[in-house]
Write a structure and sequence with these properties.
CATH architecture of the largest domain in chain C: 3-Layer(aba) Sandwich
CATH superfamily of chain A: MetI-like
CATH topology of the largest domain in chain C: D-Maltodextrin-Binding Protein, domain 2
CATH topology of chain A: MetI-like fold
Low-confidence stretches of chain A: none
Number of helices of chain A: 14
Order of helices and strands of chain A: HHEEHHHHHHHHHHHH
Largest sheet of chain C: 5 strands, mixed
Strand content of chain A: under 5%
Helix content of chain A: over 70%
Radius of gyration of chain C: 24 Å
CATH class of chain A: Mainly Alpha
Mean pLDDT of chain A: 91
Oligomer: heterotrimer
Chains: A mainly alpha (324), B mainly alpha (270), C alpha/beta (440)
Structural class of chain A: mainly alpha
Number of domains of chain A: 1
CATH class of the largest domain in chain C: Alpha Beta
Distance between the termini of chain C: 45 Å
CATH architecture of chain A: Orthogonal Bundle
Number of domains of chain C: 2
Chain lengths: 324, 270, 440
């Protein structure tokens, strides 16, 4: 083992000598360190984006240049706007809640000593349990006939619901029809949101735990000795020190929420107007309707929206992040 | 503050929710097909159908799929850790022109939907002659904006003077990065290793698109064979899913035991 | 900053200039004027066939291919299995752009029309007419016309761009135990009887009679059996009174609590039925083996029969199942692919396939085959389904129908959930479907 370590070390030293020639020009060193990532991502992720922008200018079915035609078409398409609405409801529903829930669980998990790996593994399971298995169970729990949740509702005297096949808005249901059914997210969409919070928690808890274990213990202990309450410790020590992690999760989960696809298909199979987000819509254009140019245009619009959202988050939330 | 009974009570209650589908998967794998299709959720089968497991395993060359998947997933994992460590360090700790532009470029790659990348990537992989090879399954996933971002955040969270002290000692970038900085962000590195491994392990569409022969297929493809046009053999599918998932759960359990316990605090002295 | 934008501009210029081949998707071609192209075979030494069978049926298909390869085709057939039809469609679409295709692939009518638009599908008429390699008039007449008809694409000079592969028809599955509980000893023959039985089941047993699987082909089957049509040329006919009648039937069933919607993508309808929760479900005859497995304990307590009709003397139902199409690659690959199709649909093989899979033999002569008769002795339900081939009607094979399918399913969902009346739903559907079909 130590021979290997020495070997690696010697190699690194050699490379370092080369790097040190540029010690006055960090740009060169930066470029060298970044090059493997930038080349791969440039070729396999960024180039496709350019490609999408390019083909979005064509009517691909007829093979003719279409200018902004696909974009104009999207703006005039009610189905596009409905998908935009669904996407936003979904992002607003999943991101803050899953962050809050996952942080709470991670914080509790970080406290415990006895059986901690065991509990951590339990909370990781939603992320690895096969999509088919978890979707099947969720669908069975939410079954309109003989589903466990409806049986519970009936027991406590509440009317059973159609859950995943209910296209009416939750507000409509809660207000007993006072609010029209088309306003607000549908009950089906809310079920998908709940599923995704559950699924994403497995992922977020892991990242939170990694963040928590990077916080020097002395800081929290010091605050405790000064007589701070648990809440004060969280508020003034843990959260600020975790802010780089929280910021990371906020940005990443916002992007992911725009791209959520599997949960929609796994839970509702044939997404209706009320459960079709932009990605599902793009997918339908690509592989059901074969309108690749139009689908690419919608994808570009979606990317633009995510970019805007990320910039806003970066400007307004990024400032509050506490780096050492 | 010592953890109290309340903490455990909360955690146990919450874990019921997170574990339930997993338990259902296990018990369903031991049911008959009629039991597996019952409209109610009955957890326990009448008699345990252990033969399901042999039936499921012999249904496809799972050994081959598994072997391929491990090769692909481990290579991707190692590459992602290395590329992300280098890039995350550069973004967090080096000052150079265009750094922010490049970081924005990096974030932009996260925003492109998979379906959009499929067409150009497929064409490229074919042109490179990688169709039906490991290269097609591995190379496009060897860097990840997500991972670079996480490593960058972890480096930013470390105290500044710490880096300067090491640089003053005359330690080169790579040696410093490998022997001193990397261990400090070990929790993040373990996290990205885990997620990049799982990413390859769970990939389905891309491998189907870029491979043609049975001996190049990955494990998730193996799970699709239990579905036909007219139904799914739920019990067998759950057997196969269980076998596929268990290694990842074990891996996670082990990382929790060996890597994350008290990883860091020894390193930082204020 | 200036340098960065210059670099970006350069990259963009490069992308735009150097990829003439990638020039959008399927260059050229409006529905009426598809231009033929040739593609490189994905495997020069064998005729690759993309299919989605798994497990035993895949093994059987492999052995049929081996048999065929023993007849020394120009290149041997090689089967490659991909997850499902969606995966096949995606991979063919991608391969069309890479200019490299398998020899043949299975798929539904809307998939084939897209391949035609892209100039990739090969019309089979010349192969069929070929005096030695083709089919003779009496052989062709042995196929049920309905089964062949759906492979002739009216928007493309009525040429035969695919060939029947696995066929089944929409059937009504009935649970005899539940029917007996409600006092019936035979399934309904007409839609009026069906509604009456549903009402009796509800009042006598308290059970809902039917879990609705919202699927476009099923709805088409209901419409056909009520004497309606869904399309005329390239215009939809969802404004017909018979279409409205079908939607009204669903509306009545749900409003009176006689039926409920099974979540899409599940088999809840079949499973509720197998556990005596409902009396009926409507699925293609290919579900018979799965239904039989679920009902294993009670083989005689259920049946599968022709769906109810408005006019039992003039019955109609929906025809299901994928076809297989050949791509424009090399002469040798095309010949091998056609030869394999011909072999696969030959009377003996077709019977063997039907017995093993539960699909229907697509040749009339199968009725006289002793193996088939022995099998029907055991599974009389399958005989009933076979008899429906004579009047089965497939989904329309016009460009844009895939989009219409989604619209139809959403329209029915809106009716079932009470968001729209049947009148509103069909009126909106007519408008949206025509728009989708006109866009092509």
């Amino acid at each position: 083992m130590s021979a290997l370590v020495r070997f690696v070390d010697a190699g690194l030293e050699g490379l370092d000598i080369i790097l040190d020639r540029f010690h006055r020009r960090q740009g060169v060193i930066g470029a060298l360190l970044l090059s493997p990532s930038l080349i791969i991502l440039g070729v396999f992720a960024f180039f496709p984006l350019l490609y999408a922008i390019y083909i979005s200018l064509f009517d691909t079915r007829r093979g003719i240049y279409n200018g902004a035609g696909n974009y104009l078409r999207a703006f005039n398409e009610p189905e596009f706007w409905r998908s935009v609405k669904v996407t936003f409801y979904y992002a607003i529903g999943t991101v803050p809640l899953s962050l809050a829930i996952s942080f709470t669980i991670a914080w509790l998990l970080f406290r415990i000593v006895f059986a901690r790996s065991f509990f951590r593994t339990l909370y990781f399971l939603p992320y690895v349990t096969s999509a088919v298995a978890s979707a099947t169970v969720w669908r069975a729990l939410l079954r309109p006939q003989s589903g466990l949740i409806n049986l519970l509702l009936i027991n406590i005297g509440i009317e059973p619901q159609k859950w995943l096949i209910e296209p009416r808005g939750v507000l409509n249901i809660l207000t007993d029809g006072m609010i029209p059914p088309a306003i607000g997210p549908s009950l089906a969409l809310c079920c998908i949101i709940a599923f995704d919070i559950w699924h994403a928690s497995g992922f977020m808890i892991v990242v939170f735990l990694a963040g928590l274990s990077s916080i020097p213990k002395q800081l929290e202990e010091g605050a405790r000795l000064d007589g701070a309450s648990t809440w004060q410790v969280i508020r003034h020590v843990s959260l600020p020190l975790l802010s780089p992690t929280i910021f990371f999760l906020l940005i990443v989960s916002a992007i992911k929420s725009f791209q959520s696809f599997n949960s929609f298909y796994a839970l509702v199979s044939a997404p209706g107007d009320d459960t079709q987000n932009l990605i599902v819509y793009i997918y339908a254009q690509f592989y059901q309707n074969q309108r690749i140019g139009y689908g690419a245009a919608v994808a570009v619009l979606m990317c633009a929206a995510i970019v805007l959202l990320t910039i806003v988050q970066w400007r307004f939330v990024g400032r509050k992040v506490h780096y050492e | 503050m010592r953890p109290r009974i309340g903490t455990y009570a909360l955690l146990i209650a919450g874990s019921l929710v997170s574990v339930f589908p997993f338990v259902w998967m296990l018990t369903t794998s031991l049911k008959t097909s009629r039991e597996a299709s019952a409209p109610e959720i009955d957890l326990l089968p009448q008699t345990l159908q252990w033969a399901n497991y042999t039936n499921a395993l012999y249904a496809a060359p799972f050994g081959v799929y598994f072997y391929n998947t491990l090769i692909v997933a481990f290579t991707v994992m190692t590459s992602v850790v290395i590329t992300s460590l280098l890039a995350g360090y550069a973004f967090a700790r080096l000052e150079f022109r265009g750094r922010n532009v490049m970081f924005a470029f990096l974030l932009a790659t996260m925003m492109v939907p998979f379906e959009v990348t499929l067409i150009p990537n497929f064409l490229l992989v074919r042109d490179l002659g990688w169709y039906n090879t490991y290269a097609a399954l591995i190379v496009p996933w060897c860097a990840s904006a997500f991972s670079i971002f996480l490593v960058r955040q972890s480096f930013l969270a470390l105290p500044n003077d710490f880096f300067e002290a090491a640089r003053v000692d005359g330690c080169g970038h790579l040696r410093f990065l490998t022997w001193i900085a990397a261990p400090l962000v070990k929790p993040s590195l373990v996290t990205i290793a885990l997620f990049s491994f799982l990413g390859s392990y769970n990939s389905l569409i891309w491998p189907i698109v870029v491979t043609s022969s049975e001996d190049m297929r990955l494990i998730q493809y193996g799970l699709t064979i239990f579905g036909s046009e007219t139904g799914v053999q739920t019990n067998l599918l759950m057997c196969a899913s269980t076998i596929v998932i268990l290694p990842t759960v074990a891996l996670y359990f082990l990382t929790q035991r060996t890597f994350l316990d008290s990883a860091l605090n020894a390193g930082i002295k204020g | 900053m200036v340098r960065v934008s210059l670099a970006c501009a350069a990259v963009l210029a490069l992308v735009v200039s150097c990829t003439p081949r990638d020039v959008p998707a399927q260059d050229s071609a409006t529905p009426s004027s598809s231009t033929a192209k040739t593609f490189k075979p994905i495997d020069p030494t064998s005729a690759v066939c993309w299919d989605r069978n798994t497990l035993e049926t895949a093994k059987l298909l492999d052995s049929i291919a081996t048999e065929y390869n023993a007849t020394q085709p120009p290149v041997p057939i090689k089967l490659e299995y991909l997850g499902n039809y969606g995966d096949i469609f995606r991979k063919v679409s991608l391969s069309i752009q890479a200019r490299e295709l398998p020899a043949t692939a299975v798929g539904y009518e809307p998939m084939t029309s897209e391949y035609i638009v892209a100039g990739a599908a090969l019309p089979l008429d010349d192969y069929i007419a070929d005096p030695s390699a083709g089919l003779k008039a009496d052989e062709l007449a042995d196929f049920y016309p309905s089964v062949l008809e759906t492979n002739k694409f009216p928007q493309f000079e009525n040429r035969m761009y695919s060939f029947p592969f696995c066929k089944s028809v929409l059937m009504m599955y009935y649970n005899k135990r539940v029917l007996r509980e409600a006092g019936f000893d035979a399934p309904p023959q007409t839609w009026d009887e069906f509604l009456a039985q549903c009402r009796a089941i509800k009042s006598k047993t308290g059970k809902q009679a039917y879990a609705i699987n919202v699927d476009c082909s099923t709805i088409e089957g209901f419409i056909y059996s009520m004497g309606g049509e869904v399309v005329n040329g390239s215009v939809s006919t969802f404004d017909q009174p018979n279409v409205l009648a079908a939607f009204k039937l669903f509306d009545t069933l749900v409003k009176e609590g006689l039926a409920y919607q099974a979540p899409p993508g599940t088999y809840d309808d079949r499973e509720a039925f197998a556990h005596d929760r409902t009396a009926f479900f409507f699925r293609p005859s290919s579900h018979r083996p799965d239904a039989a497995a679920l009902m294993a304990a009670t083989p005689d307590d259920w049946g599968m029969t022709r769906i109810p009709q408005s006019d039992p003397n003039n019955p109609r139902t929906a025809l299901y199942g994928p076809n297989i199409c050949v791509f424009r690659t090399t002469d040798a690959h095309q010949k091998a692919a056609w030869g394999f199709i011909k072999h696969f649909t030959s009377p003996k093989v077709s019977v063997r396939w039907a017995i093993a899979t539960g699909y229907l033999p697509i040749r009339k002569s199968a009725a006289n085959d002793p193996d088939m008769q022995a099998f029907w002795e055991k599974w009389p339900q399958d005989r009933a389904a076979f008899d429906c081939l004579a009047f089965g009607k497939s989904q329309p094979n016009v460009v844009g129908w895939q989009q219409v399918r989604t619209l139809v399913e959403r329209a029915l969902t809106a009716v079932i959930s009470g968001l729209k009346t049947p009148e509103q739903a069909t009126a909106d559907l007519k408008k949206e479907a025509d728009k989708a079909l006109a866009a092509g």
